[in-house]
Amino acid sequence: MAEQFQLYDTTLRDGTQQEGMVLTVEDKLAVARRLDDLGVGFIEGGWPGAVPKDTEFFRRARTELDLGNAVLAAFGATRRPGVPASLDPQVRALLEAETPVVTLVAKSHTGHVRNALRTTLAENLAMISGTVRHLVHAGRRVFVDAEHYFDGYQLNREYALAVVRAAAEAGAETVVLCDTNGGSLPDEVRTVVTETLDLTGVPLGIHAHNDSGCAVANTMAAVDAGAVQAQGTAHGYGERCGNADLFTVIANLVLKRGREVIPLEKLRELARTGRAVTELTQVPGSAAAPYIGGSAFTHKAGLHASALRVDPDLYQHTTPEFVGNTMRTLVSDMGGRSSIELKARELGYAVEAGSDEVARAATRVKEMESDGYSFESADASFELLLREELDGGPRPRPFDVESWSVGVTGTGDEVRTEATVRLTVQGRSVTATGHGNGPVNAMDTALHTALDPCFPALSRLELTDYRVRVLSGETGSGAAARVLISYRDGERSWGTVGVDGNTTAASWQALLDAVHYVLLDGPPGRVEDAPPLAAAVPG
Ligand SMILES: CC(=O)SCCNC(=O)CCNC(=O)[C@H](O)C(C)(C)COP(=O)(O)OP(=O)(O)OC[C@H]1O[C@@H](n2cnc3c(N)ncnc32)[C@H](O)[C@@H]1OP(=O)(O)O
Ligand SMILES: CC(=O)C(=O)O
């Protein structure tokens, strides 16, 4: 049973204040559904009356958003100075959003009251009380975001406390202390929250920005000090350096503080929710994001891998499956036999770090990386290398390459690229030509034309990304170019690598690895049901 803690998401309001984040109403509705599924208690949808798209969001939400867990909140400011709340069009727009909750931003810093609002301290308190009362009278639950609270508290503690008291006395359910400029540190936040709670007894929340890199730490400090509401955003999206990453806050509260703010089975949806949100926002989360980032449980160093073989807890602070993530191993020149064993097991091969095959594969990886190869994101090329070692040498190939050529011809404005491949397939000589918008595209087309009729599995192979890096002077042998190609093959995604003094030849290598990888089947030593490493994870 989830505890009565207020998890408040502001992705659709403060999150959209991030540079580069532009969401349609459709996107906002879809993000709200994902966050509701995860189990957050409150979803702040935007500022109706100020942002036309947000007004439209709340209008459509009434019929199109069937929330199972969350309550929708409309965000807006207190009434303008000198205007009764009942006559302020912005306040009216908040009521017209018809949400159960309204969250009001209120000034709590005397400098802001005087210089930004250009009103008196007394009028600001009246604006807060009057607006809260008006909304509560109209049947709304009201939260008050006390803007610049931590800076305001340092400047004029009595006034900041007066804002908290005025909001609560007028009927605000929770007063959210905002580190609006994001410059506070955890010890300061803990002290101010503790003192405010002691001096007012008002239920408090925390809204922390990340300008000092402490948004999550500040949120945790505030909750430890007694805050009952944590605000944050998916992936920490938000104005400037962003907000507290609500996904990290949730995982910390559940796994580190034992507070079941969402049910454990929902926590296992955390990584999936993160991916779904980035697909909608088109703003990627960081690979290094705690808990749910692609690298959060990914291990590169050989010594780490060697300890992880014995016990995953030795280099992981928690169990990745708790948050729907998985442990991965990277193969590189920084690894040794243990990294090879772990990666091989990830790929389904039951091998031991102490075996000769694994030792040979580890040596080859180090040598090839010194020549410019990189296997980190070329898992298919690594698997081909591993298979060669496990099989005791190159396997019989399903086809042989007799020759290949690529030509680029320019006539006027037109550039034409043509590739020809000559292969021996099942004893027959096959020649095919492909055209494309460049050499890689043309070679890929020619290979498909030659091979797909004999090997239908290849028709599912789709090239999704191509990266080339010039390596001059960087490698032992002075190799010139490294090409990394990413593919999708039905549900799977994987990559290959090629290195050569000639970029087109490096691309050809990577393309051929892809074809051989798809045709790799029925291998001896591959155990389809080898116990995944995750099975060894306790808990
Ligand atoms: C800390 C936060 O992130 S709070 C959320 C911030 N979000 C946004 O600002 C996004 C939505 N904002 C908007 O659409 C516009 O800024 C509006 C509609 C709110 C205001 O637009 P405009 O009236 O054109 O004014 P402008 O954007 O220049 O803002 C200045 C006005 O806001 C007032 N203002 C500034 N801060 C606040 C506040 N916290 N509460 C109420 N009014 C405020 C100023 O006093 C000034 O009013 P005045 O013109 O009567 O002197
Ligand atoms: C309310 C808000 O977004 C802030 O003070 O940062």
UniProtKB/TrEMBL annotation:
Keyword Ligase: no
Coiled-coil stretches noted in the UniProt entry, renumbered to this chain: none
Keywords (A to Z) from UniProt: Acyltransferase, Amino-acid biosynthesis, Branched-chain amino acid biosynthesis, Isoleucine biosynthesis, Transferase
Gene3D superfamilies in the cross-refs: 1.10.238.260, 3.30.160.270, Aldolase class I
GO terms for MF: 2-isopropylmalate synthase activity
SUPFAM superfamilies, per the entry: 2-isopropylmalate synthase LeuA, allosteric (dimerisation) domain, Aldolase
Known EC number: 2.3.3.21
Pathway the protein takes part in: Amino-acid biosynthesis; L-isoleucine biosynthesis; 2-oxobutanoate from pyruvate: step 1/3
Location of the Pyruvate carboxyltransferase domain: 5-268
Reaction(s) catalysed (UniProt annotation): pyruvate + acetyl-CoA + H2O = (3R)-citramalate + CoA + H(+)
Matches recorded under NCBIfam families: citramal_synth
Family named by the database record: Belongs to the alpha-IPM synthase/homocitrate synthase family.
Protein name: Citramalate synthase
